[in-house]
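ugh ok so i messed up the first submission bc i forgot one of the chains. this is the corrected input, ALL of the components this time, i swear. 547 residues overall. if the numbers dont match what u have on ur side tell me asap before i send this to the collaborators (the ones from the other lab, u know who)
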Amino acid sequence: MRSGAETGRSGAETGRSATTTDPAGTETGAGFDPARPYEVDPQVAIRPEPFGALAYHYGNRRLTFLRDDTLVAVVRDLGAHPSVDDALDAAGVQPGRRPAFRTALRSLSESEVIRAR
Amino acid sequence: MFARHEGPARTRGYTSAMPDATLHPADEQAQHTDDALVEDELLVEEISIDGMCGVY
Amino acid sequence: MPAERLTDELKRGLDAPICLTWEITYGCNLACVHCLSSSGRRDPRELDTAEAMAVIDELQALQVFYVNIGGGEPTIRPDFFDLVDYSVAHGVGVKFSTNGTTMTPQRARRLTASDYVDVQISIDGATAATNDAVRGDGSYAAARRAMDHLAEAGFGPFKISVVITRHNVEELDALESIADGYGAQLRLTRLRPSGRGADTWNELHPTAEQQRRLYHWLVGRPGVLTGDSFFHLSALGEALPGLNLCGAGRVVCLIDPVGDVYACPFVLHEQFRAGSVRDPGGFAHVWRASDLFLELRAPGSAGACSSCGSFDACQGGCMAAKFFTGLPLDGPDPECVLGHGETALRAIAAGSAPAPGPGHSVPVPLGRRMLAAK
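and heres the new structure output, hopefully the right one now
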């Protein structure tokens, strides 16, 4: 199963962040909109860990550490809510933490861990 | 802290987060004003699957 | 909540490896002078197909995301493709490392058909002269043919993996050009004094000056992979990409061809053998409960490095490099960028370093061309 417009093997398995291969941010993620519904990409496995969870995308080989249990719960639950913000509400994320969560979710969108549905 | 933990070179989703979500609202406000002093924390860190030593 | 550094949490180990190396055979049709596994002849006790598939079942149950298959030369196993296909079908992504000698156009096309198999071709020089001095006559040409076949099949980005030596560190730009020409990813890894590498390390390992040049070359090239194998160079400045810590027994490990589990591929020695997949409880039990791995996950001290301000950056370097040069594990790496390793090595009695295991090397015939001094 190939993800998006890229073949699995041309996914960003670089030593550093994908911004070096996508400087204009024109790939998925730049259009991250927390008012829209999202879901975990079907090629992603999420494995619980003491520090939160590991998310691995089998298509683009990218490995992401989710370092917050609430964030993990939000990510897992995205598919059940009509918007990202709704999922944040349901998880009880305080307003003061919303910017941090949205930034994290935007980066997860850029690395294709989550996608708009 | 060493730069390698916070620099953009190996992390994505650089973000600030409050250190304790169970603080009372008053404390949260106090924490907000102290944001500049509280070290930014990362909720998401990306690492290459090739970025683990001991694998050839 | 990230209350401490991620790396500190990872040092305590995980319930399962994130990825790992699996050497599926000691057999090899080459005889590289620095082979970390002293490969050559197959071992009669190698895991059979059913046992190998049982290992894959365990990796799937543990949710290991990715396995790096190697050897020896893994493709000489008749069931090689069966194991790769089985692994992919059971949720474990595969990268395999090969010398390329068996890469026919048909195999290249077969590999292209899978989205979840990555290929890594080994060369150790940008020219046949440099490469073949280490890997044997004709090995460079065979590797390049393999790359050509993958390119012709439309495989996409494969990896070209180079072990950095005193002789190829001058060819970094040329290696990068080769990779760019194929649209491949260049991967540079550290030579350890492991396996046959123990015999050639003194002649082959890069000099301190070369290490500094390598470090600065890598810092400017985030697209070059390193397998996090140069974390000891992080004391030179900005850390290179990666976890920057020894993953052995904590986030990665090795399964060898006869099912023995070691901390990593570079410590094939009884002292770093954690158990066997054939033991009751299989691989999972070894990973979670072996004495060795529990010891590696316990907090360590900086030991002799505690007075050095760089310890937090370099983590004291590589366990394998210290072990096989006879240095204590709680002291500096032999290639410590501050020179502390060189100082420590001078205190080592000649011949006192632990010997690698007996290995599976093919006996060298008399008259074989020896590594030429440069």
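quick check: The radius of gyration of chain A is 14 Å. that seems consistent at least. Residues 98-110 of chain A form the longest helix (13 residues).
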